[in-house]
Amino acid sequence: METRSLIKDLLRFTNSNQVFLLSALLVTFLFTLLLSISLGSFNFSLLELFNSTRDSLHTTVLYEIRIPRVLLAAFVGASLGLSGASLQGLFRNPLADPGLIGVSAGAALGASIIIVLGSSLFPSFIFGAFILPIAAICGAALVISLLYVFTRGFGYQGITYMLLVGIAVNAFASVGIGILTYISTDSELRGLTFWTMGSFGGASWYLILPAIIVITLSMLWMIPSSRKLDLLQLGEPEAYRLGVDVKRLKYKVIISSAITVGVSVSLSGMIGFVGLVVPHLVRLLGGVNHSYLLPGSALLGAGLMMSADLISRTLIQPAELPVGLITSAIGAPFFLWLIFRIRKI
Amino acid sequence: MRMIIIYFKNEINTILKMRSFLIAISFFTSLILSDCNEASDSSRTVIAGGSLTEITYFLEQENKLIAVDVTSNYPKKTRELDSIGYVRALSTEGLLSLSPTLILGEDDMGPPLVIDQLALTGVDIRIVPEEQTSEGILSKIRCLSSILGVSKSFQDQKISLLAKDVNKLKKTASKNSKNPKRVMLILNMQGTSPIVAGRNTSGDSFIKMTGAKNVVTSFEGWKPVNSEAIISYNPDYILITERGMGSFGDIESLSKEPSLKFTRAAKNKNILSEDGMAMLGFGVRTLGTALNFSRIFSEE
Fold first, then answer.
1. Residue A132: predicted pLDDT
2. How far apart are CA B56 and CA B36, in angstroms?
């Protein structure tokens, strides 16, 4: 019932062209998913694998290594795209980005502490591979609490003020990461540098399952607010008079993007530009209403991230390029073009 | 851009090295010495390079040391000395404030501008040549002891302690190399794919010293390698630095990581961990570690 009414609600504010675009994005997404799963440095044919169950190593590679990695890339891409779109809507600012409110930086600080100080802080730690994501989520949570305190429950002095607080939080977290970089040893420094450039290399089922659940839940929580985000574009007081509980919407968008971004960063490092660029691409394709923009950004974000990861793991195999390098390499020129276009208008 | 530079650091470094080498010959040949002649005054020596510090303690010359860099963390007593920061990011004024009479480093000492400035002030700066083999370590020890003015007889006595190990190492290594074990060396694997030693790294040289074969032949430098490639490499042994294990805690939980789990090394519990400098520093301890590992590789 819930999902059906949700879909009906979404369709009500989406025109037929956009429905077509969304289905096209879905098809592209599925195609990329299939392509990502069938290609990799370990060479085998997917069809052959399904036809016979002879070679167990191939099945293990597929199920234990490649599929978790592709799924993680898809969910991280979707969450970055979606939170980018909703934050841009909330701040009514086309340059808003999940990194902007400082959540990614907070998560990065948490993870950096573990990478550099981990072995001396917890000599024989029971959490094992979980400790890094947990620390990153703690860092993200700390930033959200800071934002909450400084904006007195996200309500004080409007959205620009929150953006400024975010900038300060970002600067503060970079200081922390900088200090850790300075005191780290050669090997930790390498780990830290490669981690901040993003990688899906650490993906394994027991790590990504909780992440997938959390990201899915907060996406389902966020997408129904799309109509309210549309109204918010008229301005905060106007939206309030049209019956939008602006404060509640703020809570919803900030908390859900903080959670999804925190989880994403904790498992994959800092991946730039997807949160910023994907919503713009989706808008250019079909329009600005959030009932189309939010699901579209999630689908395109997932597709782009899977493709970037595919390039990252196959371009110079057996080594791999950090995935953040690829997303930024694609994102930066697009961003420049965007600025150029705005100037011309 | 910065990220691209970091990633292709090795390739760029090679180009830069050639350039700075040319500049170096044209301007500073007379100022920075890389010979092993005895220094006129080694009473206040500063060392930038963990292996050199290790060797200085091995030669019992630590009373001449006044400061070391942050990579010099063995033996533990080095913590009592002043620190000059990171070996590649030295500061001219900070170093001069210690009024050193002799600065010793390896070719990673930097930045070049600081080294040139220091040389211009007339401080005796030596770059101790490094060759990453067991003989190379011995000649590094010889070079350092002659710079520090250690008597010939004491030097011989100290080297003879190691010569035995070197001979044993050579013997086991040449035996191993007839049917070499395939080894992969991981520097760090927290949050990213394992960062693995490629060609022209200290890790590659270390593996060669033991008579084993590095599984990675297709790339240079330390790079993250994806899990699928690790499975197709299927190394017999995996070496990992202790710090690199980080929060994995022990070999047991490390060998359950999906990227390593399906390798022959993890199945046979052939994952060995050791302090990073003891493997890759090419100081005194590297000989012992290499001997130890080459013996393990020679067992069936």
1. 78
2. 14
Query: Mutate which of B51, B70, B193, B230 to disrupt the A interface (most A C-beta within 10 Å)?
Result: B193
Q: What is the CATH number of the domain that holds A119?
A: 1.10.3470.10
Q: At what angle do helices A103-121 and A131-150 cross, to 10 degrees?
A: 140
What sign does the dihedral A260-A325-A206-A122 (CA atoms) show? negative
Domain count, chain A: 1
Q: Which chain B residues contact residue A65 at CB under 8 A?
A: 227-228, 231, 258-259
Lowest mean pLDDT among A20-34, A62-76, A172-186, B126-140: A172-186
Instruction: Please state whether B99 falls in left (phi above 0), alpha (psi between -120 and 50) or beta.
Output: left
Range of the domain at A214: 2-344
Q: What is the pLDDT of residue A281?
A: 86
Say yes or no to pLDDT of B37 above 50.
yes
Confidence of residue A301 (pLDDT cuts 50, 70, 90): very high
Would you call B190 and A185 a contact, using CB atoms and an 8 Å cutoff? Answer: no
> Cβ(A131)–Cβ(A122) under 8 Å?
yes
Q: Using CB atoms within 10 A of its CB, is residue A14 exposed (0-12), middle (13-18) or buried (19+)?
A: buried
Compute the distance between CA of residue A22 and CA of residue A91 in angstroms, rounded to an integer.
24
| Partner residue opposite A187 with nearest CB, options B70, B228, B241 | B241
Rounded to the nearest integer, the mean pLDDT of chain A is: 81
Please give the residue of chain B at the shortest CA–CA distance from A121.
B247
What's the CA gap between B136 and B142, in Å, rounded? 10
Q: How far apart are CA A221 and CA A147, in angstroms?
A: 21
- How many percent of chain A have pLDDT more than 70? 86
> Where do we find the tokens 């033996």?
B75
CB proximity list for B83: less than 8 A, separation 6 or greater: B67, B68, B69, B70
The pLDDT value recorded for residue A39 is 85
Which residue is closest to A310 within chain B, CA to CA?
B226
pLDDT, mean of residues A77-90: 90
- In angstroms, what CA-CA distances link A321 with A44, A191, A199, A309, B109? 22, 14, 8, 9, 28
Predicted TM-score (pTM) of the model is: 0.80
Inter-chain contacts counted by CB atoms under 8 A, chains A and B: 160
Between the alpha carbon of residue B291 and those of residues A3, A270, B173, B282, the distances in Å are 65, 41, 8, 13
What's the half-sphere exposure (Cβ side, CA atoms, 13 Å) at A156?
A: 11
At position A65, the amino acid (one-letter code) is I
Note the pLDDT tens digit of each residue in B65-82.
999 988 888 898 988 998
Q: What is the pLDDT of residues B104-152, one digit of tens each?
A: 998 888 888 888 888 888 889 999 988 999 999 999 999 999 999 999 9
C-beta atoms surrounding A2 within 10 Å: 8
Query: Does A143 score more than 90 pLDDT?
Result: no
B211 φψ region: left (φ > 0), alpha (ψ -120 to 50), beta (else): left
With b for 16 or more beta-carbon neighbours within 10 A and e for fewer, the A69-82 pattern comes to bbbbbbbbbbbbbb
**Tokens standing for B193?**
């794919």
Q: Is B125 left (phi over 0), alpha (psi -120 to 50) or beta?
A: beta
In this prediction the ipTM stands at: 0.71
d(CA A38, CA A57): 15
Find the largest Cα–Cα distance for chain B. 58
Q: E strands along chain A, which residues?
A: none
